[in-house]
Each structure stands twice: as C-alpha cells, then as structure tokens.
Design brief:
By secondary structure, the protein is mainly β. The chain has 1 helix and 37 strands. Pfam families: Glyco_hydro_32C, Glyco_hydro_32N.
Length: 485
C-alpha cells in the first residue's frame, strides 16, 4: 500500500486496508503494527473510560524517523482493537517537527497526555518543549501547549520523554536528559495539580558514566519499599554477554527517596530483553499490575527491516506483566493473550526420544516446552523455514543460552548470548508471529524478542541434544489474529 500524502488520504487508506486486508508472509497477526508508515515507541499507556489506550509514535507518511505523530488504538481485552487513528499532529509552533514520546495520566475525569514537542531550527538546532494535551470520553483531544519551557541550565536540548508518577499525593515527572558534558541523566519535576511543574532536581544514582543519553525513563513501585527505574541508555560499551545491541533498555531496582531525589542502594543495570529488537518500553499500572509494552525495533538500524520496501515498518510487543521476585523483574505475556488460542496442535508429557521434528503449516503459534537438561551438555531448539533457520542453543555446563539468526537470508542477522540458570529443566514459552518471535525463558526470568523475514511460509520445529531428549511437556496452539474494528 503506498504511503498517503495527506490526512484525508490517511483515513481513506485505513478504511481500504481493513476492508481488504493485505496478505503478506511478513504481516503479523497478533502484534500491533500500522498498515503503512513507521511505528515506534509506545506512548500514553492508560486505562480510561473502561478501556485501554495504547498510543504510539507514528509517521503515517513514510518509513523515516520524522514527522512523528501520536497514533492510537483502544481495546477492552487485548484481542479486539479499534482501528488506528491519529491523535496528536505536529502542527503547532511548539511541536512542529514532531510530537515525541510521553505518557498518560487519568485525572479529573479526563486523560492527560504529556509529550515532548520537537522543534528544529534552520540549521538543525534542536528545541525541546514538554507539552500537555487532554482526551475526553468522546475521544476529543485538545492541546494545551507548553508546560515546561526548554531544559534547565547544565543540560543540552536532548530533554524529552516525560513520564508522570505519583508519590504521597504529589505528582512527579521524570525526563530523560543529557548533561552538557554529554552524560545520560534524568531530571525530576514535581507538581501539586499535574499542570504547573517545578524542577526538583537530577535523580542521583551510582551511574555517573553510563552512556551519553537516557531515553524513555519510567519509575514504578514494585514493592512496599522498592522502585524500579526503567530507561533506555544510549552509548554503553558492548560486552560479550551484555549490551550486545546498539542501544539497551533495562532497569535498576532501589529505594526511592523523593525528597533527596535519590535512588538509594540500587542494583546493577539489568537488560529487560536479551534479543535483537526491543527498545523504549513504557509501563502503566492497572489493578495492581505493572504492564509493559515495548517497541520491536532498534534506532539507527532501519536497514535490518526489509518491510521498508513495502511501505511499513516495526511493531509493538505483546503487553507483558512485570513481577518482582528474587530481586529481579520477571516478564510474562498478559493473560488475555491466551484467548487467541485456537486449535491445540500438540499435547505431550513425559516423552523420551532421539530427536524431535514437527512440520507446521502456520507461523502464528504459541509453544510451551519443558526439556530435561540436567544430564546433557547442550540442547538445541531450531525453527526452520526450508533452508533458513533460527536456533536457540543451551549449554548446560556454562549455563549459557545462544540465539542465532545468522542463517536467515533477509533482514537482521547475528548472535545474542546470555546467562540463563536452568537447574534441571529448560523452560520456554514461545510466541511466533509471521515476522516476530517473543521467547520467555524460565517462567519469564529472561526474554528475547527478535524479527525475522523468511522467504517461505512454512515452519518446522526441531529439538535435539547430545543424548536422548526428555520432553517433560510440550504444548502448542494455533493463534488467531487480533481484530481491528
């Protein structure tokens, strides 16, 4: 579908797309993506008026990182969605070059939307304004202009991505910033009414030299006395088992002393996703659950995503529930995703064999598998697409997991390695969509998200190790598409 050139064409193309939905071996079934243009950071995640609001960065006019709007879908169940629509347009002096990322806050019977207005000067110089808009129950969105005017002294114009949280009946806003000596930092503002904001200070952490920019910061309460600071640092040094992507998204856990603007006794930075394609997550709380959605993509790596040639790029992750236990954040898909299950293809318990092979007709499946690894050195799970494949290898002696997509012909390639403590069994919950995989290990202790672009439609599952395979459990379901109405 060609990219539209006007807002009228956007509406026409949306109607045409969902009336005659395009079939493509790379179009995903249960991951949110746009019919055309480029989608990236999730924004404004909220529960308002008995439905979930999922905003996101969207360039509807092309597959370049420019002209960023806020798009919107809503849902009551995460399986049926409204058709995408544009909610914020970059049309005012304070956001004319992009309505950049931000958050949502339900207050006074309306949904407040905080975002960064991006303005570029004639020579490319940047100005950043923190802005406010509101959405009512009729879906009418009204801009209210600038609420924080440019960055304070000591910081560059990389000053963006507002995220609002509440502590002791006071509103706080955390922003990702860059100091004038080019270090990533976060600033916190405070407000009594969520409209007028004053600078509280820079968030004090032990991360003095931790990249040159911190994007998309979140602060969430995860227990009575613990908070998680979740952010996306840029400029970390690559290591063998850490920071293997160009940019990272992860968290530290500590004790937030808001009066002194300090995260005390915090843990080391831990990446949220050890795969290839995950960035800029946002979290919101609903009924006591911290729910996270991330962008399936990576900045400055557009050439690894061949759907560019078809006029669309990127997707959002399934919603994940974050649970704090054993001093880390576990992640698992929100329960409503299970409602996409259709035919159960496999139900195996307690099977021992030399190797396992299964050909599937669909690439829209969920797989739950548990394999004995206590007495073997390595185990390999392979997803084959004729002569192409993605392999997941587990080295039990080294407690090392390797995800390898080097044998795919199109799109991003490479290898990712990470430590994974399995004890006696390797457990994986795999969600395969037409060009996205999300793999949850050991009940959500680790996750890998990756894109892949096979030339064929089929899928074959292979399992092998250096001895006989004991499959404690193997379940598999076809997954239906989410619906847009």
């Amino acid at each position: 579908m060609p990219n539209p050139k006007s807002y009228q064409e956007i509406n026409q193309n949306l109607n045409n797309y969902y009336s005659n939905k395009e079939t493509s071996i790379w179009r995903n079934n249960f991951h949110i993506e746009m019919p055309f243009g480029l989608i990236n950071d999730p924004n404004g995640l909220s529960y308002y008026d008995n439905k979930f609001y999922i905003f996101y960065q969207w360039n509807p006019f092309g597959c370049e990182h420019k002209t960023k709007h806020w798009g919107l879908v809503t849902t009551t169940n995460f399986t049926n969605f409204t058709k995408p629509q544009i909610s914020l347009k970059p049309q005012d002096w304070f956001d004319r070059n992009g309505c950049y990322s931000g958050c949502g806050l339900v207050k006074d019977n309306e949904l407040k939307l905080y975002y960064t207005g991006n303005v570029k000067g004639p020579n490319g110089e940047r100005e950043s304004y923190q802005c406010l808009a509101t959405c009512n129950k009729d879906g009418v969105i009204e801009k209210h202009g600038v609420i924080i005017d440019k960055q304070p002294n000591g910081y560059t114009a990389h000053f963006r991505d507002p995220y609002v949280f509440i502590e002791d009946n006071t509103y706080y806003m955390i922003l990702g910033v860059q100091s004038e000596d080019l270090k990533g930092r976060a600033l916190i503002y405070e407000s009594t009414d969520s409209v007028k904001w004053g600078l509280l200070g820079e968030l004090k952490t032990d991360m003095k030299d931790f990249g040159y920019m911190w994007e998309c910061p979140n602060i969430i309460r995860i227990s009575k006395d613990k908070h998680a600071f979740i952010f996306s640092p840029q400029g970390l040094e690559k290591e063998e088992l850490k920071n293997q992507n160009l940019y990272q998204s992860g968290y530290v856990i500590g004790e937030l002393d808001i009066k002194s603007v300090e995260l005390k006794n915090h843990s080391r930075f831990k990446e949220l996703d050890m795969g290839f394609d995950f960035y800029a997550p946002q979290i919101f709380n609903h009924n006591g659950k911290n729910i996270m959605i991330g962008w399936i993509g990576m900045p400055d790596r557009d050439s690894e995503y061949p759907t560019y040639e078809h006029g669309w790029m990127y997707s959002l992750t399934m919603p994940r529930v974050l649970e704090y236990k054993n001093n880390v954040l576990y992640q698992n898909p929100i329960n409503e995703i299970r409602n996409l299950r259709e035919t159960q293809l496999i139900d195996i318990k307690g099977l021992t064999l030399n190797n396992y092979n299964l050909a599937l007709e669909s690439r829209s499946v969920e797989i739950m598998i548990s394999i004995e690894v206590e007495n073997v050195e390595f185990t390999e799970v392979k997803f084959k697409f004729n002569d192409e494949y993605i392999s997941i290898t587990y080295d039990n002696k080294r407690q090392l997991c390797t995800v390898d997509r080097s044998n795919m012909n199109i799109g991003g390639k490479g290898i990712r390695k990470f430590k994974l403590n399995s004890l006696k069994e390797l457990k994986m919950n795999v969600f395969i969509d037409n060009s996205v995989m999300e793999i949850y290990y050991q009940d959500g202790l680790e996750v890998t998200t990756l894109t892949y672009y096979p030339k064929s439609e089929g899928l074959e599952l292979q399992i092998r190790n250096d001895s006989k395979i004991t499959i404690n459990e193997l379940n598999m379901w076809n997954l239906r598409s989410v619906k847009y109405e």
